[in-house]
Amino acid sequence: MISAELARDLAELHESARREVRSIDPITVAHPDLTIDDGYAVQQAWVDLQVADGATLVGRKIGLTSRAMQQQMKIDEPDFGALFDYMIMPSGVELRHADFVDPKLEVEVAFMIGQRLSGDAVTIDDVMAATDYVQPALELIDARSYRVHPVTKRARTIVDTIADNAADAGVILGGEKVNPDDVDMRWIGAIFSCNDVVEETGLAAGVLGHPANGIAWVARRLAPYGLAIEPGQIILAGSFTRASATKPGDRFVADYGPFGSVTCSFV
């Protein structure tokens, strides 16, 4: 396992990149033998830095839930990251593009958890029973390490992504708050547009067959670390569209039909 000292050093490197809005080399360039567990150790060290700086952990995000993305990253499971209070934004928010390194948007379902989910045997039924409501969401992702290195042309690995808090930068919540028992969540869909041009469409079934499967997975994945999904936390289940690039002047609308919409713009 990676040492605590190295994990903290690499976490501080990511934090400086976030604050200074600049790209850094993926950590596997200098440390090619790092494992997925090492990536999570770096992520946890970054989480500790955020908490020490006064931020509050409010939930988790799940990424790489589609089979195509897992095959591209040469893995057979999703990844997860942490959500903090300063990341949560309302629909209609206007964002400064220059505040982010490489901002992209993904269309998701957010789960608001009312009961603790812990242990290595959490099921989809447990998740449904523990969920107060779900609602439409956009995830703002922002890779702080180069997705493709400008010199070597080497793509970053799953270890690099995990160490970079699974590329999470924010959550935009909107639309209707829906009782999970009142809808077949597999059929929650969205039409995602940029500047009135449809960019993506998708169904929540694209997230591991059912978005609650992602919540169960992250609860089980947290268990070996002595962590759990706690009451009051927000969990992003994973994207059911491809990530959409952004630029200043763009306005995005995710139309979830009967469940409302989520919007944001960039200046």
Question: How would you summarize this macromolecular structure in one to three sentences?
Answer:
This protein is an alpha+beta fold and 267 residues long. It is 26% helix and 29% strand.
Notable traits:
267 residues; alpha+beta; Fumarylacetoacetate hydrolase, domain 2; 8-stranded mixed sheet; 5-stranded mixed sheet; 7 helices; 13 strands; 26% helix
Descriptive report:
With 267 residues, the chain is α+β, with helices and mostly antiparallel strands. It has one domain (4-115, 133-215, 229-266): Fumarylacetoacetate hydrolase, domain 2 (Alpha-Beta Complex), CATH 3.90.850. The chain is 26% helix and 29% strand. It has 7 helices and 13 strands. The chain has helices at 4-20, 27-30, 36-52, 67-73, 124-130, 158-163, 211-222, and strands at 57-63, 79-84, 88-90, 93-95, 103-113, 131-142, 168-173, 189-194, 197-203, 234-236, 244-245, 251-255, 261-266. The strands form 2 sheets. Strands 1, 2, 3, 5, 6, 7, 10 and 11 form an 8-stranded mixed sheet that branches. Strands 4-13-12-8-9 form a 5-stranded mixed sheet, with no helix packed on it. A hairpin with a 5-residue loop joins β12 (251-255) and β13. α1 (4-20) crosses α3 (36-52) and α5 (124-130) packs across α7. The longest helix is centred in the first third of the chain and has 17 residues, at 4-20. The radius of gyration is 17 Å and the shape is globular. The N and C termini lie far apart (43 Å). The relative contact order is 0.22.
